[in-house]
Argininosuccinate lyase
Amino acid sequence: MSNRMWGGRFAEGPDAIMEEINASIDYDRKLYRQDIEGSKAHVRMLAERNIVSGEDADKIAAGLDKVRAEIEADTFTFSRALEDIHMNVESRLAELIGPAAGRLHTARSRNDQVATDFRLWVRDTVDTLDGQLTELMLALATRAEQHAGDIMPGFTHLQSAQPVTFGHHLMAYVEMFARDRSRMRDARVRMNECPLGAAALAGTSFPIDRHMTAAALGFDRPSANSLDAVSDRDFAIEALAAASIAAMHLSRLAEEIVIWCSAQFGFVKLSDKFSTGSSIMPQKKNPDAAELVRAKTGRIYGGLTGLLVMMKGLPLTYSKDMQEDKEQAFDALSNLSLALAAMTGMVRDLTPDTKRMKKAAGSGYATATDLADWLVRVLGLPFREAHHVTGRIVALAVERGIELHKVPLADMQAVEPRITDEIFSVLSVDKSVRSRVSYGGTAPANVRKQARRWLNALKRE
Ligand code: ARG
């Protein structure tokens, strides 16, 4: 049998393989809510403009509500022969209300319909991600305030560099996720134009009101060019780009958690709720949630590159290639959402071992810069010379296998005679972090202020 929706000119139905490659219902059923909302807005507008009767419009709207209820009650039978969510919904509508259902598709095509549905879904998802990023920022800033003064090593090249505080480290991620959130919000602003009414590609001869449908669906305005409206997917690509950057940030934090959880570091313990054991090694507690957050990044980037590559060679306007946009975007954005939830849970529950962190911060000559700064401040040495003098003292410590503050004063004076025992006061990690009072620096008072500023701002939203 040929397709009921478009089979007028067809004598034969499709090959089974054709049906399989053509059908998108297995994944685009996710758009049912958006599809029904879009259709209701469309039919109300058609009635308002006297393109369909008020009576038919009422019937159609009520029928669409019924279809939605069936889908939500899991009593709806999806059919692959009907290809996609749009034709599944419309076909059921016809079964429920009869011939009036055929009037719904007046002045509309699946091309503007799918562009609208997908935009609505991406917009909803971006709003959800925005809220989840906010939750994660709150969790991080809350922990940062608690640990504003707890010292840990700061790293470059994963080598001990200078002492910082755990709170400062967590607040670095708050700044990153804040930018991710603003990228989501920017993407939303640009995506919020309504393609509905562009019809197949050229617009329509019916006297439709595109401003009315745009407003009904919460869009800022109808899209200005009908060809652009049905053929671009940059709104999804932009959301995926923002998602990819957020995933990259999540992955770095996840990687740090994996490192911090190792017995060798032992900086944090994850709660049992966010760890797993090994079926052979009874002692194991593995940071699987963090590893999976790190891994999700791959498929999120995959979604972005998948869409970019799929779109790059398509002449205007719609080509069926574009049906492949949804599955990848659904997967990428849903997995980002899951990764955000998992990270927020881990951050809320983790227990830092502040003693161990502080001990590690004091090793590895992490206060060498403080020593050099003292030589500049107190003895007036140029920084380059102070750096050299400090390097020689560090070499002495390395040679003897002792920490910097254990090098005897006489040995330091052999390198630079003007050094006094005042030097030892800057070699402690506490002094070091407390001295970093420059704007954005790691001094605990700074960190506390930053954490409170963010907490207040986020709670006020
Ligand atoms: N299922 C299609 C998609 O997802 C809907 C649009 C089909 N339009 C068409 N002219 N075949 O892109």
The beta strands are 151-156, 159-165, 193-194, 221-222, 268-269, 351-352.
